[in-house]
């Protein structure tokens, strides 16, 4: 039980790592829209107003709002139709009092006009005259010049990860090329004398490598560039050689496997031998995932992840994913476990330890419920059946059926 | 207001589309791990048991559980240490009663052993003898042969989209190549005489194309292959030519723009002219997103999306995203809006209409709250500020501050 004394919480582990981390920022120019999913290197500022003119948001008539004040069904306002706005063109003359211009959604208001009356609130008396049966306020049914984006305004911040709508706003301000941060390279090494590659047929006592592939997928789906280094036997010299190579060639190294004490010791000593400051914590006060080693070697994170597939993915989500995505741990982390669901059964948990339960999500009477997928953390099938991970915080000694838990989709 | 009568609900729109949809299934062989994010074409079945042997899940001693029954601190069981299991190897002799084999996590139990005693619950008297201070039940601290996956078992179902852990299970059963569904090709056309490309400086009355880029990103992040067809003027012949080309070259077509009545009519007639059965609905009973046209032309979906950037993305999420991801609308859709958050202010909504509100998510006293990002649906900046979309169902006439709403992250 000695290890439990050294085990640190996830937030402590993050703090320890953060103190020594120094992940490189490599710039790459990318055109939109291919920059999707990449992180901006610099703030993006708009050079122009969007829209560049007062723009109608409905079909109808551009008017001076004052000309419609007091208008009603019984006492409509009469306006002279003086012209029609053509899409994509500036009206050539300004709107005189008492007049209206026909305008379609997206059209540019003529000078003098300050609102648009919806066509539904008008009637055409003849080709030159409409009656307006409802007043409009100044600015009504109009997006004003610069109302969406003002020239000089910060549009997106440095570090922001580009979503579809962010590509849209870049297009809106005419930015078709951005500098983004290149994906971090993550070396993945598996260790264990019992591990064989998926191509091989396992002999007695052997199992195929699962973690390399789960981790590859997890790195990729967080925007990183995974590189597989294969399986290394549990020998100090071989492991050291492979890890040193992976460390040199990547921004981050994930060593998986070695849940037995002997192998863990080797992995530990190897990581420690790579450089300074070395191992920062042995053991996390979470379940599953306790036998985790966290190290930083000359600014690059190196993680010794547990051998069990479930534990490995849990620790990846908690400690590795944010680094791959952002190059750092976020300050606000409440969106890491954004779902709230009620648990379907009692789950016991030790106080002082965070528990992560694999759950299937189901809907019962319009409420989201989390159904624990029970089973040992060594089972990959367990993880495949799960929709998400539910967190039981360290302060609690478990949750009772019906209690709300925080869930992250897997 | 005539349109409102024709407007259909989202589920009605899905049903109408589904009746005529026939999206192609093109197979592609892919190696794991690069198959991440792709949908399996066929069921995957395990050819072997995983693990292929009874496997220790802790460090300790492989024993016959019966030999430890009744053991306690005061009355321990004495066992003779008869050997040590080497990782990745089959123990060569079986375990005799009264004996124990040293074993590490992941090791193979010798024949005769049915449980593992944790090293923490033993003491070594001498090199040949241990005392066991706690009994183990048969199967304790063991993953039995086939307990994770049984030979013949369905591992992943046809249509399943591969997540990181799914790559892991494929590796576990030795499947290194799978047939996946090729990404669906989605042609994107923008229309509007006022729209210019992002490379151009907009003149008076002109705005840059936003939707092509938002939609490109949205298609890509749902696993599709987007193809941009640029901007077409609002003329029947030009639009027909371009849409016919996009329809021919793709599995699905998205036409965006044309929120004004005149342009909508042209878009409508053009889509109708492409083939059978043609337009299935005009107008959705949602806000924003009402002016949407849904069509199927010889099995391929064609959508006329609203011109406003917010409306376009809302409709994309509701009607297009599932088709791009899965090639169909899912039966269970409760995970489409998986988050629950309390809304920070009253929002009015018309009964009979689903409302989609852009929200920022914030944490207040450990609870998730959704803060509406107010503003017109024509504003792209609105969408960039939002973390998600909150849904107000058609039955409700709005929500009051503090009420819980369903949210989808954007």
Automatic annotation (TrEMBL), chains A, B:
<dbReference type="Pfam" id="PF00994">
    <property type="entry name" value="MoCF_biosynth"/>
</dbReference>
<feature type="domain" description="MoaB/Mog">
    <location>
        <begin position="187"/>
        <end position="326"/>
    </location>
</feature>
<keyword id="KW-0808">Transferase</keyword>
<dbReference type="Pfam" id="PF03454">
    <property type="entry name" value="MoeA_C"/>
</dbReference>
<dbReference type="InterPro" id="IPR036425">
    <property type="entry name" value="MoaB/Mog-like_dom_sf"/>
</dbReference>
<dbReference type="GO" id="GO:0005829">
    <property type="term" value="C:cytosol"/>
</dbReference>
<comment type="function">
    <text>Catalyzes the insertion of molybdate into adenylated molybdopterin with the concomitant release of AMP.</text>
</comment>
<dbReference type="InterPro" id="IPR005111">
    <property type="entry name" value="MoeA_C_domain_IV"/>
</dbReference>
<dbReference type="InterPro" id="IPR005110">
    <property type="entry name" value="MoeA_linker/N"/>
</dbReference>
<keyword id="KW-0500">Molybdenum</keyword>
<dbReference type="InterPro" id="IPR038987">
    <property type="entry name" value="MoeA-like"/>
</dbReference>
<dbReference type="GO" id="GO:0061599">
    <property type="term" value="F:molybdopterin molybdotransferase activity"/>
</dbReference>
<dbReference type="Pfam" id="PF03453">
    <property type="entry name" value="MoeA_N"/>
</dbReference>
<dbReference type="InterPro" id="IPR001453">
    <property type="entry name" value="MoaB/Mog_dom"/>
</dbReference>
<keyword id="KW-0460">Magnesium</keyword>
<keyword id="KW-0479">Metal-binding</keyword>
<comment type="similarity">
    <text>Belongs to the MoeA family.</text>
</comment>
<dbReference type="GO" id="GO:0046872">
    <property type="term" value="F:metal ion binding"/>
</dbReference>
<dbReference type="GO" id="GO:0006777">
    <property type="term" value="P:Mo-molybdopterin cofactor biosynthetic process"/>
</dbReference>
<dbReference type="InterPro" id="IPR036135">
    <property type="entry name" value="MoeA_linker/N_sf"/>
</dbReference>
<comment type="pathway">
    <text>Cofactor biosynthesis; molybdopterin biosynthesis.</text>
</comment>
<dbReference type="InterPro" id="IPR036688">
    <property type="entry name" value="MoeA_C_domain_IV_sf"/>
</dbReference>
<protein>
    <recommendedName>
        <fullName>Molybdopterin molybdenumtransferase</fullName>
        <ecNumber>2.10.1.1</ecNumber>
    </recommendedName>
</protein>
<keyword id="KW-0501">Molybdenum cofactor biosynthesis</keyword>
């Amino acid at each position: 039980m000695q290890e439990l004394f050294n085990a640190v919480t996830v937030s402590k582990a993050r703090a320890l790592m953060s103190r020594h981390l120094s992940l490189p920022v490599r710039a790459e120019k990318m055109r939109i829209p291919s920059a999707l999913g990449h992180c901006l290197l610099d703030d993006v500022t708009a050079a122009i107003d969007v829209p560049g003119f007062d723009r109608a948001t409905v079909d109808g008539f551009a008017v001076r709002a004052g000309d419609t004040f007091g208008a009603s069904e019984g006492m409509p306002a009469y306006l002279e139709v003086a012209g029609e706005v053509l899409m994509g063109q500036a009206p050539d003359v300004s709107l005189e009092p008492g007049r209206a211009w026909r305008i379609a959604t997206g059209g540019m208001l003529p000078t003098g006009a300050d609102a648009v009356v919806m066509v539904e609130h008008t009637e055409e008396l003849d080709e030159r005259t409409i009656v307006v049966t409802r007043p409009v306020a100044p600015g009504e049914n109009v997006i004003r010049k610069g109302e969406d984006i003002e020239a000089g305004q910060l549009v997106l911040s440095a570090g922001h990860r580009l979503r579809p709508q962010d590509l849209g706003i870049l297009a809106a301000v005419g930015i078709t090329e951005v500098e983004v941060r290149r994906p971090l390279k993550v070396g993945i090494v598996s260790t264990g004398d019992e591990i064989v590659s998926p191509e091989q047929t396992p002999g007695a006592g052997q199992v195929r490598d699962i973690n390399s592939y789960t981790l590859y997928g997890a790195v990729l789906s967080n925007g990183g560039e995974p590189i597989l280094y294969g399986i290394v036997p549990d020998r100090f010299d071989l492991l050291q050689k492979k890890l040193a190579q992976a460390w040199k060639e990547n921004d981050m190294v994930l060593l998986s496997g070695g849940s037995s004490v002997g192998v863990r010791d080797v992995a530990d000593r190897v990581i420690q031998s790579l450089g300074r400051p070395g191992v920062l914590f042995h053991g996390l006060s979470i379940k599953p995932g306790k036998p985790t080693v966290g190290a930083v070697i000359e600014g690059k994170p190196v993680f010794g992840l547990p051998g069990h597939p479930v534990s490995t993915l849990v620790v990846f989500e908690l400690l590795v994913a944010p680094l791959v995505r952002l190059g750092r741990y976020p300050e606000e982390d409440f969106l890491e476990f954004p779902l709230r669901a009620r648990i379907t059964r009692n789950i016991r948990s030790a106080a002082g330890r965070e528990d992560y339960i694999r759950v299937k999500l189901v809907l019962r009477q319009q409420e989201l419920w989390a159904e624990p997928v029970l089973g040992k953390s060594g089972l990959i099938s367990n993880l495949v059946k799960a929709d998400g991970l539910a967190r039981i915080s360290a302060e609690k000694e478990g949750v009772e059926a019906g209690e709300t838990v925080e869930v992250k989709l897997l």
